Structures are given as C-alpha cells and as structure tokens.
Amino acid sequence: MESNLRTSMQQVANFGTPTARDHGADMIKLIEELYPICRSLTGDGVRYTFDLLKNHVPVTTYEVPSGTHVFDWEVPKEWNIKGGWIKGPKGEKIVDFADSNLHVLNYSVPVHKKVGLEELKSHLFSLPEHPDWIPYRTSYYNENWGFCLSHRQLESLEEGEYEVFIDSTLAPGSLTYGEVYLPGETEEEILLSTHICHPSLCNDNLSGIAVMVELIKALQELPHRRHSFRFIFIPTTIGSITWLARNEANTHKIKHGLVATLLGDGHPFTYQKTRNGKLEIDKVATHALINSGQPFEIQQFNPFGFDERQFSTPGFQLPVARLTRSTLYTYREYHSSADNIDAISPTYLKESLDMYLKICLILDRNCKYMNLVPKGEVRLGKRGLYHKIGGNSQHMSDQMAMLWILNYADGTHDLVDIANDSGIPFDKIYEIALILKDKDLLAEA
User: Which helix (H) or strand (E) segment is 171 a member of?
Assistant: First the structure.
C-alpha cells in the first residue's frame, strides 16, 4: 500500500518536469491552431473548434435548437460568416474580415450597400485609448451590422461614398457546447467550466481552453479519482444558462467548481470566492495559493464577471468559484487585437495548469477522519510506524505528520485543516493519512 501510494504521489510530482512533455509548448501550439477560427455564441466556428479539440481529449458535443427556452432566456439564432469588407471612395478595401476576424462586429446581420461617411461611422467601433488596436465587439441580442477597426484608421477616413459588405447568416440553427466527463469512485463532481465563444483572442479565452485540455490529460493519468470530474466548454452566459437548464436535475452532484479564463498572462493569480465565501473550495484554493510561493489576490464574490455568476444565482447557489491570472479590470489587452499570441507565455500557462492541478488534487483527496484508537496516544512502534534510528529527517517528518493527524482526527477537521495548523505540506498529510488508514488507525468520518 505504502509503496503504491508513493509511486502515485511521484507520478503527480513528476508532472511537467524536464523529463516529461513540455506542457507549456503544447498549450501554445493548440492556441496557435485555434487562434484563426472565428467563433461566436453559435455557429460552424465553434463546431470546427470542437472537431480540433476531439484530437486531444474525448469531448462530447451537444446541439440545442434556436428558440429553446432556458429559464428567462432562449437560445439565439445561429450566426455564421464567410467574409466582410469596407471599400473606400476609390474602390479600395480599407477593412477586410480576411485580415482579422475581429474586423466584423460579431453577430452582424448581412449587409451590402453604399453609405456616406456619417452613416458609416455610426456602425464603426474603435479604441481611442489604444489607437492601433482593433476592438472586439458583439451584437448578440440586437440585430445590427458593423465593423471594428483601429482608431488611427477611423480618423483617416475621408468624406465620400463607401461600399459595405458582410456575407453572414443569422437564422434558426442551434447552440453547440461540449463536455468531457471523467468518472471517479463517487458521483460527486468537480466542475470545470471555460468559455469557447470568443474569436481570435488568446488570453480570453484560448488560454482557458488550452489549460483545461492539459488538465483533462493530467487527471486521466491518475491511478484513481475519488470525485468525478466534469469539464464543460460553453459559450459565455447563454451557454452556462443553457447547460444549467438541461442539467438542473443533476446539479446536486456538483461539490466544487471553478471557472477558468485569462490564464496565459503574467499577472498574479486572482481567486474569486464562491457566493458563500466560506466553502471547502475557498479554503482549498487559498491553501494552494499560499503554499505556491507565488503572488496572488483573493477577491470576494461579485455578480458581475464570467459564468460563475450563473452557477451562483439564488436558484442554484452552486459552490463554483473562479481562478484567473488577470481580471477584466487588470488585463489591458482585454477584448482587442492586442490579445494575441504575444500577450501570453508558455511559462504562465504551465503555472496556471500546475495551480489548477494542485487545487483539483487537494479537492479530490481532502476528507475528514476519525481516530479509531482515540484514548491516549497511539503506540506507533508495535505497528512498525516508529523509527528508532534518529537523524533521518524523512522519518521525523512522517512521525510528526502521524501525530498531527491522529490528534486532529476527530471528525471535525479535514486534511487541509491539519496541513494549515501543522505547517506540514498537504501531500505529506495525505500520504501519511492513507498509511494510517491502511493500518486500521483511521476511518473516514
């Protein structure tokens, strides 16, 4: 038992070492593959993205028809686009979807007509504070057409007649989302959610997609999992609402959850607590961050943000938090063409992967125990657990972990509590707890 456990622990410890696969480079490669695709809430861009992801992980996709009622919302029409451009007064293309899929307002209705400069400007979007960047803008629920361009280019437009063309369709279809389910020893689930609807934006949210793909691979390699893990790849807001509406009967299985996005830049980790703020996942994430040796920030729940706000609405109140690096307020490249491959790093992606893996492992292994020999100190020697030869720091560390666990194993303290109070790393506490359990000294509470 002890030998098998140490082998299992070593497999996890070796994840991402120089002798293992270069996970950071693999994530960058996947992001580069997905970057050119024009994704949206719906459409073929999302489906093509899933086709590529299926080469890496076992994603099951679902189609939900347009018009389907999902609580207070309904699934929108499906949007697809082939191209779009603006021609200037001299007939030259001055904006072209072929150059950047951010150039066309996402969810634009089709249009082909000639307009004057004043009317054209009412359909143009730019970033005056960043004059060389192209903004990412959407019009999901208000049928409109438009183009996004750099502010410098906008200011250079001359009076005259412009020809605008957007070759798109907005018609009944379906919304596509994907799931990866990794069964565990119990049906209690750890939910990992990431949004898949943004076009050519690397940190938001190809970073989240790439980290989740590598996390799935890492969890698949574990010799066993107590919890079942469910990964969902969804369009933002309407996707989580749709998923909740279709899976409401099973949401009671969700014991912990995290929303993953903005994971490729160099900003310190930012953990936003659950709506309750005092749940096990809040304690575990805080423990993992404190013991990571990296800078981090912990924020209270905010009903404005990503999909954690849907999981946390009063009708569900699921234990779902969010772990990012940057936030909406600290990522200056947010929703712009500057959110490109240069804005992320394989090093930061790997750090994000390691943090998610650490939190998932602690959540999966954390539990409460009862000391089965609670009266007086347990005699370790007669069970072969006490080492007589001194000077071995490994033996002393093991023995101190045993004493802490046996003393705190009263059914009210979990392993993270013991790690926090003792200052002994969680991995050591977990390893020794299983050894004590194997010696019939502990039982799960």
Answer: strand 161-171
